[in-house]
Write a structure and sequence with these properties.
Helices cover about 45% and strands about 15% of the residues. It contains 14 helices and 14 strands. It has helices spanning about 15-30, 60-70, 85-95, 105-110, 120-130, 140-150, 195, 215-220, 230-240, 255-265, 275-280, 290-300, 305-310, 315-350; strands at about 1-5, 35-40, 45-50, 50-55, 75-80, 100, 135-140, 155, 180-185, 205-210, 225-230, 245, 270, 285-290.
Amino acid sequence: MRILLATDAWAPQINGVVRTYQRLGRELRLIGSELVVLGPENFRCVPCPSYPEIGLALPDRKRCAALIDAAKADVIHIATEGPVGWMARAYCRRRRLPFTTSFHTRFADYVSARWPVPEAWVYALQRRFHKRSAGVMVATESLAADLGRRGFERLLPWTRGVDTALFHPRPVRLFGEGPVFLYAGRVAVEKNIEAFLRLDLPGVKVVVGDGPQLAELEARYPSAIFTGVREGRDLADCYASADVFVFPSITDTFGMVMLEAMASGVPVAAFPAIGPRDLVTPGVSGMLCGDLRAAALAARGLDRARVREAALAFTWEAAARLFLANIETALAQVRQREDAVARRVRMGRARAV
């Protein structure tokens, strides 16, 4: 199967969406399918407000249509609700082609953290975007339940995987021998990183990653260690050097970094929010609590071997096969609905005769 992926998030951006589809592309090739990317690099871009390192594509429907036609894909999957996603959606609607989508980002929380925009408005826009999708892939059961309450339909489960060959326990201590509490991910206001940095914890706090809030947090919390972006083995060493991975976000829809920490044998401390609720088993792979300090201190005592074992259930091969199964399920349901409509039309014509 040849799948066109329409996405506003692609390299050189570093985030969970990009990493998900980069790894998905590799896994799909191994099982005989192909992912063709239609991303912002195919268009003229302008900097995203409040996030200038991200380029937003300028709408060009004619170019978009030409690129999709040239891809000769069997199916179209739209990953994001940005300009590229809307252009691909418009193409499918004009051609009456079915398409699937994913819900990766709770933009309502991100927007409200920056501007006085009601969350209901943003969810209404996202609901409109996904309304015509043959199937909306969501990463966790708690996210599906939340979106279902908000009026989203045709939700399909699609989990993620973790590279357990790269992320695993190893004898390394980059940040000293004392207790190391570590966060990894984008350094942005919606990630709620200050809830971690404000905690009264023994040892050292480490923040791995880059983003628009980095300079502000570095100035405000000089005792913390800020490493900037780390990738590959360097990132794996950062995880393995930690005693606890602290995940303060209450807006993420999944949180791949939690799986990477767990695969490294590092227990997770998090709020009981969407994402952590589905990935972390309290008392086994981490601790969930409204008191993040209490969760972080309690997580230190967990068995690191059991923490890693909990991550082994998340494989990228299984995630890729589920992605394909979701597409096939969604398209089969479209055909069933079309056949039902055709039958009603035929019966109406027969009665008229």
